[in-house]
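Team,

Forwarding the record for the chain on the shared tracking sheet. I've put the sequence and predicted structure together so nobody has to dig through attachments.
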Amino acid sequence: MKIYQQALTLRERRRGFHIITGEIEEALPQLDEINTGICQVFIQHTSASLTINENADPTVRMDFEMFFNKTVKENDPDYEHDYEGSDDMPAHLKSAILGSSVTIPIRNGRLALGTWQGIYLCEHRNRGGQRRLIITAWGE
């Protein structure tokens, strides 16, 4: 069994849903040494999240942002946690809904994503800053 782990700091991105599959693959070139395995990508933040979805049509990512903004509204007077700005508590809720990690099979040295799948960084803050990921891959 081979186990590899790499920290990756993503550059700051605007609020929205961003495909980061290529950056993850570049950060862990040892993937090509694993024929059959698993890759877990974990984000070390509570106001951004990760998910897997459509990688071809950018309107899907735009619709994700629209849906989450409608579903988890800013400036709700019932929020107690509001001292970091109107986007902070909604960012925590969106992150909890989507999750902090994704797990992808590795097959023949590559992430076994479907043809139209990509890994998204879901940036829920207006100014979230750089985001840190831990990528762990294991297998044979």
